Amino acid sequence: IEGKIGIDAGCGHGVETRLLLASKPKEIFAFDTSLLMLKEAKERTQEDNVHFIQGNFLKIPIAQDTADFLVACFSLHYVADIDAAYREIHRVLKKEGKAIIVVPHPEHSKANSSTIDQNGLLQIPIYDNKVIVKYPTHTIAEYYSTYAKKNFETIDIEERILPDVSEAYPSVLAFTLIKK
Prior knowledge:
Number of strands: 9
Structural class: alpha/beta
Helix content: 10-25%
Radius of gyration: 16 Å
Largest sheet: 7 strands, mixed
Order of helices and strands: EHEHEEHEHEEHHEE
Distance between the termini: 19 Å
Strand content: 35-45%
Shape: globular
């Protein structure tokens, strides 16, 4: 990614943003819905070529055909309408731009189905059960929707079990899309 323009979509507190900076991109636009997370990310990242902005997948606050790549690490799954997010990702990427996406594996969500609330949202406790994160569950078919197949080429897909997860089923689904 050296010399390229990228987007850290759903940057949170900026862990991936700092990892991306190690590869010397020209510029990084990092967005998140949470002002608290953006504040924390800004405090940890002082480089002039990073721009932290509030936004979301349904209205990415970046001009059309701007980015060479977009990284969405554990953020796209929070969106209920995956195709709406794909339309925005398609809009901001340059032709042949790459979207690298990492989400909780749908099988992992099914295995945690006891934590799905009456609205169909998966509930995951974090920070010693002080915060409950809620998000919709998605199928692999939703991630590879008709819109995605028509507008992107899938060049890579991986299923992984995270090192700190003891289950025997995949906990992560990662894939790379190229804008057609």
